[in-house]
Please model this.
Amino acid sequence: MGCTKFSEELLRTIQTHPKADIQAIFSIPREFNISYSEEKVVNTNYSNIGRLAQEWKIEHYLVDSVPGSKLQDYEDKIRKHQPDVILVLGWYYMVPKKIRELAKHGAWGIHASLLPKYAGGAPLVWAIINGEKETGVTLFKLDDGVDDGDIIEQQSFPIEFQDDIATVYDKATEVSKKILVKVLDQYPDIEMKVQNKDEIEVYPQRSPEDGEIDLNWSPVRIYNFIRAQAPPYPGAFIRTSDNEKIYIYKAAISED
Model:
């Protein structure tokens, strides 16, 4: 299950692994419905996963949160494949328990943080905004809560001061590939570590309107805020006196 450029990179990695046998691919449209927004949300990091399914002659299903195309509507189709694992890589919907339980080993996801830190929405963006010098990725088993399942594998990587969201995203993708290959190599001898749910930090999703810069912030905070939301994300902005937005994609801090 995936719908982003991250999803595509990992899907290509899985497809070439000798132990992998992909039975079905689920994706989400570029513009899709979701519970926290009255209007359709635009996936700014979208990848058309369906074209890979067509190229590889793998069954493909399109998911949206409207009757007839919700994930639970595909329960029978998933059941017929009798999957060992459902991999959820770059996905925007909760995966219901009755869907997760259709797979022998449940559903596994990759979250771009060192759980239990930065669970929830936009973990890389929040890490950069907060000036973190390190983050990572976590492969974990999905549970009923937000990113709170058992941890299968984790690996950290640095956030350099000159990094922006694009370079950090690339680092997260490369580390995720390594983790997936490592775990697939070990499969089915997988050990899981129970996550302490009391330590989980859940961050909210972000929308384009959350990108407004407060010019009263310190230079470092403004710098972090700008680089956290640079392309491919919508960008940080300031408003003019007539309420127009000026987007800022790159900045530097003066030595003065």
